[in-house]
Design goal:
The complex is a heterodimer of chains A (421) and B (178). Chain A is mostly beta strands and 421 residues long. Chain A has a domain of 144 residues: Oxidoreductase, molybdopterin-binding domain (Sulfite Oxidase, Chain A, domain 2), CATH 3.90.420. The longest helix of chain A is centred in the middle third of the chain and has 8 residues. In chain A, 49% of the residues are buried. The termini of chain B are far apart. Chain B is mainly alpha-helical. In chain B, 36% of the residues lie in helices and 5% in strands. Chain B has a domain of 122 residues: Cytochrome Bc1 Complex, Chain D, domain 2 (Orthogonal Bundle), CATH 1.10.760. The radius of gyration of chain B is 27 Å and the shape is globular. Chain B has a two-stranded antiparallel sheet. The N terminus of chain B is likely disordered. In chain B, helix 2 packs across helix 5 and helix 4 crosses helix 5. Chain B is built from five helices and four strands; from the N terminus they run H-E-E-H-H-H-H-E-E. The chains are: A mainly beta (421), B mainly alpha (178).
């Protein structure tokens, strides 16, 4: 296919997504590494000697080890507290490898012996119960692909008055990940204990040093919440709550209490510290929103993204991730001119509820300035807002639950930087 | 095998398959071990705004000063002004100019949350090392530093949940949005 035959569908070089579906992207515009063309190819050395043998637990290629989580500096005031961020700009597809799933801990990762761990259900139930890990492994389980996002994710994009020129997809937005979670529907265990009619909330407590608690309305608990025991097929990682965590699909990550050890049915929420002092949104009129649960409709271009560079003019695959805490991603649009014109991206992954969805679109960079943005729409019709509209609605006193459109500026040197547009 | 026998076999198998499906999807597995609330008295640390879950014991701010200075002041400073943004626990006003300073005194809606949090998570380097009596004392002291209770006011399971916090009406409940 010749460059001039590619259908431009929006300003500044966006090409019809159909070209990713078999029409091809060959031709004069394709970015190719010309220096390697035309040389004679040789059999490489690794094809001439046996490699290493199979191993008990795999590790990635030594050539891919730069793909790392980004962790904050330890703070002696909060022993074990802090977070690590997923390297979104290096990942493809929708599943986050377990070792790269983001973490947020309030008092460190406990080293839990599953044989000693207990899960208690008490409070407003007909019969308080205690379960061992071994008991729980015998229950029917479900497996679902869900994203998990910290409600503090992307907060810096609001807090920083001027855009951080060093910002990357990871540093700004890396508190979101996605995995296949396998576990027991919470309703199964609650039904066994027998929920009394006056129980409106499930107060969940972890077995970490903070005994961190969050409460969940009974409607969610009986809908799609689960006690997750496995993450991408293996036991949940210690940083994700081994041996078990609560998982509330689509909801702010902090509600999915890790190292889950207690579920107490209550009439009113206990109003734990992390649902009053923290994880609440104070508005310009000084009222504060509590129990803001579903994460907003959101998307992010992961490539090209902050700190990357385009080294020659031509066609690039613009790709990223989209998600909604309230449903499925119906549509993702991409702009290359800072939001003046938009083109529909191709959804090139599964589109399941409350999971990450991958999108892509071909884009021809002509060597000039560009501002790349993506905008998601979910199955309820919720459209991802701009940074300006979030600030106009919610102010800047708190920056939880930011799901604004991210802008990546490209300059004539091909440098990609975090910008506001 | 005759057609009739084959048919019976298939029927039997599908009946069994059906039965096991029903039993796994509708009958509870029922492996939980019954336990009493009395057996959970040491385990269940939840203290609620309505007074549920508070242990016996009591304390005053005057008693709490020494505990606070020994166990809390390293991070929260002697006067509660903290040593970093998140360790400030005294002062602030939600209606002040600019970004309001949000502390236990200015922001937290329920006194019960202070008790619940201190008992389960503080001090950060040795959580759950304070006795219930010490928790009552130190919570009284933090509320006293905020001007919310008097120095000799006795806080216990009955009085502490009834302490009125300045920002109690400052929150909008969004929990209906699932």
């Amino acid at each position: 296919m010749k460059k001039q035959e590619m259908e431009k569908v929006a300003g500044n070089g966006l090409i019809n997504r159909r070209h990713l579906l078999g029409l091809g992207l060959g031709g004069a515009g394709m970015a190719v590494a010309n220096s390697v063309l035309g040389q004679d190819l040789q059999i490489p050395e690794w094809s001439k000697a046996p490699g290493t043998s199979a191993s008990a637990y795999g590790s990635r290629s030594s050539h891919a080890e730069n793909m790392m989580r980004m962790a904050g500096n330890p703070n002696p005031i909060y022993p074990g507290g802090g977070s690590s961020r997923s390297p979104l700009q290096h990942l493809q597809g929708t599943i986050t490898p377990n070792a790269l799933h983001f973490e947020r801990h309030h008092a460190g990762i406990p080293d839990i012996d599953p044989a000693q761990h207990k899960l208690v259900i008490n409070g407003l139930v007909r019969q308080p119960l205690v379960f061992s890990y071994e008991d729980l492994l015998r229950y029917p389980m479900v497996s679902k692909i869900y994203f998990l996002e910290c409600s503090g994710n992307s907060g810096a994009v609001l807090r920083q008055r001027d855009p951080d020129p060093n910002g990357t997809a990871q540093s700004l937005h890396g508190l979101v990940s996605c995995a296949e979670w396998t576990g027991i529907p919470l309703s199964t265990l609650l039904d066994e204990a027998g929920v009394l009619p006056e129980a409106n909330w499930v107060a969940a407590v972890g077995a970490d040093a903070a005994s961190m608690g969050r409460s969940v309305p009974i409607g969610k608990a009986m809908d799609d919440s689960m006690v997750a025991l496995f993450q991408n097929g293996e036991p949940v990682m210690p940083g994700q709550g081994y041996p078990m965590r609560l998982f509330n699909p689509g909801w702010e990550g902090n509600t999915s209490v890790k190292w889950l050890t207690q579920l107490k049915l209550t009439n009113e929420s206990p109003h734990f510290r992390d649902e009053t002092s923290k994880y609440t949104d104070t508005l310009p009129d000084r009222s504060s929103l509590k129990f803001t649960f579903p994460m907003g409709t959101k998307s992010l271009i992961t490539s090209p993204s902050g700190q990357m560079s385009l080294n020659r003019r031509g066609i690039y695959r613009v790709t990223g991730i989209a998600w909604s805490g309230s449903g499925t991603i119906r549509r993702v649009e991409v702009s290359a001119d800072g939001g003046r014109s938009w083109a529909d991206a191709l959804i090139d992954s599964h589109q399941s509820e409350k999971s990450l969805t991958r999108f892509s679109i071909p884009w021809e960079w002509d060597g000039g300035d560009a501002i790349l943005q993506s905008r998601a729409t979910d199955s309820l019709g919720n459209v991802q807002p701009t940074r300006d509209s979030i600030i106009a609605d919610k102010g800047l006193i708190t920056t939880y639950h930011n799901h604004c459109i991210q802008s990546w500026g490209v300059n004539s040197a091909g440098e990609v930087r975090n910008v506001y547009a | 095998m005759s057609t009739l026998k084959k048919c019976c076999c298939v029927c039997t198998i599908s009946v069994i398959a059906c039965w096991s499906y029903i039993s796994s999807s509708q009958e509870p597995v029922g492996l939980g071990t019954p336990v009493t609330e009395e057996q959970l008295a040491e385990f269940d640390l939840i203290a609620e705004p309505d007074g549920g879950g508070f242990p016996s014991g009591s304390g005053t701010a005057r008693q709490g000063k020494a505990v606070y200075e020994a166990r809390c002041a390293a991070c929260h400073a002697l006067n509660g002004e903290g040593v970093s943004g998140n360790t400030v626990i005294v002062g602030g006003d939600m209606n002040s100019e600019g970004t309001p300073l949000r502390t236990v005194g200015s922001y937290w809606p329920y006194a019960s949350t202070v008790f619940d949090f201190v008992r389960r998570a503080m001090p950060a380097d040795a959580p759950k090392s304070l006795s219930d009596e010490e928790v009552y004392q130190v919570v009284a002291y933090v509320l006293f530093l905020n001007g919310i209770v008097g120095e000799d006011e006795i806080l216990n399971a009955e009085t502490l949940p009834n302490v009125e916090m300045p920002n109690a009406d400052g929150f909008i409940d969004r929990s209906h949005i699932l």
